[in-house]
Amino acid sequence: MIKSLYIKNFALVDEIKIDFRAGLNIITGETGAGKSIIVNALGQLCGGRSSADLIRAGEKKAVIEAHIDAVPSVELKNLTDSLELDIEDFHSIIFRKEINANGTARIFINDSPVTLARLNQLSSLLIDFHGQYQHQRLLHPENHIYYLDEFGSLSGQINDFSLLLNKYNTAVKKSQELKASQLRAFQMQDMYRYQHDELANANLDAQELDNLKSEMRILANVESLHQYGKELTDSLYSGETNAGQLLADAEENLNNLAELDDHFLGLCENLSAAREAVEEIGRFTEQYLSNLQFNPERMEFIHQRIAQLEFLLKKYQKLNIQELIDLQEEIGRLLGDMEQFDDEIKDKEKEIVEISKEIVGLGKLISQRRKETAEIFQQKITGILYEIGMPHAQFLVRQDLNEQENAGFVIDGKKAAANRRGFDQIIFEITTNAGEKLKPLHKTASGGEISRIMLALKSVLAEADKTPSLIFDEIDSGISGKTAQIVGRKMFELARYHQIVCVTHLPQIAAFARYHYKVAKFIEGKRTFINISLLDDSGQVKEVANLLGGKDISQQALENARHLIYEAKNLQI
User: Fold this and answer.
1) What is the pLDDT at residue 165?
2) Considering the entire predicted model, what is its pTM?
3) CA angle 242, 245, 247 (to 5 degrees)
4) Any idea what DSSP says for residue 92?
């Protein structure tokens, strides 16, 4: 529910804070006192568009902030997760909107900036706004099926249908993928076979290209290798003066020193190892040079083989030989799978037919349940409309099969498309005057009639509808007397399930208030201000008397007000 509403520099409002409570909150005030400003401020937090004209004259920014206490339902948690809103405590949600002088707005949910669309999505689950010119959830035809299903307690069957449809769609998608793969394979099989043969005949080895390039580098530099190798062996091993001989002489001298002084003993082994290492390098190089020969035939072969491998890499756009090997294996699998496509497709199509039968059966059962539910639902709505001053109103639930020419299901010989709620299209229709044709609810023009229709729908759906707060404006347009009293009682009954905030000018409705707020306008220092106050019992009596008889409140008006409030309390029992 809405715990509080803070408004600053909005229209004529300087700064006010309203603490709303659970139950029926009634707002009254003289015509032009500013009741509509309170409603419009709430509307700004329910998706209303911003404008610089909404900012109080002389100010740079308007601020509207609402503190919401919400029950953390599964639907609410799923929505906040999908919107990536980090809300730790659902009992403390803050909507804040700042309207700037250029007409733009900054919107926050719990201090995190959000778009208007996200605010609208979240607020629609928490606040249902029924103003004369506001968009209303119940006036959107796509929502009608939800309300009918809630009234008929169809959620279990709807969930089963949704799971079956998901299973069906998954099977259809898999079948389409198999057919596409099969078609692609048949179209490409000649190319696949050519590619596979080309790669297979290449006798690919993951390390071959690197090894060939290394060998090519050696063959291309045989002369240099001989030159450097000869100079190395001469200097280390076989030259007239070489490092090996010099180290041998040094080793002999070091051994002589070690015989005379033990301090040199530890060095003998190091020098001996150095001499052996030098001689080993010399011998290895000498042996290497003896086997090193220039082979033009081998060099030509390597050149052609490298060219072949690099051509394949470029042709198939691969980075290395291993990727070519992987491609060869993948093509081989595709060629092998071609023989299995027919069996897999037949199995999947059989599965689709079986699931389809289940879907059609359950869908027809749901449609029948909706038909039975609609009879009761429309009778209840029509009955309540009669009670609240619309004696000629007729309410109808129109149930149509969602026919589509290319749909995948057949219901009683007609092709029908399915969504997660079944095969039906549900539209609420109404006529409010005798002799008029039924029209879709969203095309009903009168704001006062719309509000009362909303009240009737909300009364029937009170327990099913999970929206915690309902805002009613202009609900009393065109009614008075006993009808107004009936509307007041209906609103009080509705307030057992929802927090209600209702703006009214009728004393018969105001008498039912659990919490009564009065809006007043006053001038101070040549500027207009608006104030709102919560009335106590005596204040409510005076305000109801004021609504009954105008500014000059007589004793009789006060008595009439007390009687009206007394009657309202008795009707609440």
Assistant:
1) 94
2) 0.61
3) 105
4) S
